[in-house]
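Self-study notes.
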Amino acid sequence: MNKHITVPLTEAAAASLHAGDYIYLTGTIYTARDAAHKRMCEALERNEMLPLEVKGNVIYYMGPSPARDGRVIGSAGPTTASRMDKYTPVLLDMGLRGMIGKGRRNQEVKDAVVRNGAVYFAAVGGAGALLSRAITASEIIAYDDLGTEAIRKMEVKDFPVIVVMDAQGNDLYETAVQQYAVSHF
C-alpha cells in the first residue's frame, strides 16, 4: 500500500504502518551514521544533551556526497543499518520513532522497535542520486568535524521508503523470504 506520511512521526502514524508498505515521507528527518551515533551515546553516558531531539523523529543512516551546482545535496543513498545496531536501542528507548537504512537489524533492535512502537524503513541502495531529489533542504547541525558523517537536519518531500519492520515486529526481510519459498518451491 502507498501512503504519504508527515515526519516527525506520531505514535499513531507509526502504528498504522505495516511491513511492505510503500511510504512517501514529507517533513523533517535527520542524518547520522556510526561516528555520530557513537558520539551521541558517549554524550548520554556523560549525562549531556543530544544535539537533536530524538523523540518522534526519524534518523536516516546516510552520508551524502558533496552537492553539485544548483542542488541542495549530493547523492544521498542509505548506509547499512547494522552498523548502528549497538547504539540504536537506547535511542529508541528515548523516543526515536523511525530509522531509514538498508539491511537486516539484530534482535535487540527488533525488540526495541516493538517495545517503543517505532518503525524501520529501507531506502533503495544504489539510488542515492534519485533519492537526493526528494531532499529540499539540508544543514549540518552537529559534529561538523565528521564531514559526511556529521548530523544533518533535512527537509524532504515525498521521500520514498519501504517499511521493513513495523511496530508490531513484522520484518519484511523474514516474511518476504518465507513468501518466496512457499510460492516458488
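Second protein, same conventions, sequence then structure:
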Amino acid sequence: MHTPLTQAEDLNALVQRIKHWGEELGFQQIGISDTDLTAAERHLHDWLDKGFNGEMQYMAAHGLKRSRPALLQEGTRSIISARMDYLPEPSAISKQLLDDPAAAFVSRYALGRDYHKLLRNRLQKLADKIAEEIGPFGYRAFVDSAPVLEKAIAEKAGLGWIGKHSNLINRRSGSWFFLGEIYTDLALPSDQPVSNHCGQCRACLDICPTQAIVGPYQVDARRCVSYLTIELHGSIPVALRPLLGNRIYGCDDCQLVCPWNRFAKLSAESDFKPRHRLDQATLLELFNWTETEFLQKTEGSAIRRIGHQRWLRNIAVALGNGKATDAAKTALAGRLSDESEMVREHAQWALQKLDSLHIEPELPTI
C-alpha cells in the first residue's frame, strides 16, 4: 500500500498536483469530496418511492451501495470527481434541428464516440500518476459503470450544483459535460460545495416537451424523452408519442434553454465530434439503415445499446410527428412487415397519424 500521508500540507500539495494532472489529461475540473451522501440518499429513496424510475430497476438495486461509497468499494475515504466538456457544436444549431421536422435529433452527448471508455482511460492515467507520486494505493474508477451517485458526488466536490432539471450546472461552464469518479482510500482534504444559482428560474420545467420535470429537482423518468427513447424497452406510451417531436435518441431541451449554458465551451476532444453525419441526418436516411448498417455505424457509440429495433421504433414516432410526405408514408409502409412487432406497431401508428394530415407536396429535385 501507499506510504501514509499524514502532514496536512502534504495532502494539500497532493490534491493540487492531482488537479494539475487532471487538467493535463483533458479534464476541465477536478474536485474532492468525502463519502457522506446522506442528503442524496434521502432524495434517491423519495424518488424511488414515487416510482419515478420506471423500468430502471437498477436504480433500486444494490441496496445502499449507491449512496454509501464504502459499501461499494471497501476502504473508500475520499472521492476524486472529474468533469469533461463534450459540447460538439453551438447550441443555435441544435435549436435549428429541433425546428426542422425532417431532421433527426440525437442528444449531443451521443453524436461522437462513446464517452465511457475515453473517460475511464483518462481516470486510469490519473490514478497511475498518483501511484507514481505516492506508491500503490487503493482505488477504483467509475464512469456510469456501477451504482454511483455521480451528480451528488460532483456537487459535494464543488464542480457545480444540481439544477432543477437534475443535471449538474457549473457557473462558468454550464452543464454540457461528462462526469467520472475515482473512489480512493486516501484521506484527501475535501473541496467546498458551491451555492445553488438557479434562483426563481423555471426555464427547464417550462420547456420540457413531456413535462417530465414535475417540480424543481423532481424528474419523473417515465415521462422523460431520454427514458422513453433509450431506457424503455417496449412500446412508447401512445399519449406521449406526439410530444417527442423529432427527438430519436435522448433530449437536450432543458440544457438548451438553461441560461447558464451561455457560458458553455465547445469541446476540444476529437472523439466527441459527430460521426456518420448524425448531427445533420434526416429521419428518412436513418430509418433506411439495415441492422447491419446500424451496427456498423454505431460501433463505438452510446447509441448502439438501444439496438436496431428501438432505433426504428423511435424514428417511426418522429416520422409520424413530421410532415405527411409521400416519402415518409412510403418508408413507414415498408416497415409494416418488419419482423419486430414493436416496429410494426409504431410504424402503423405513425402512418395513421400522417393519414389524418394533408399530404405535403414535395418539391422536385433539380
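Instructor comment on the second fold: Residues 203-257+274-355 form one domain.
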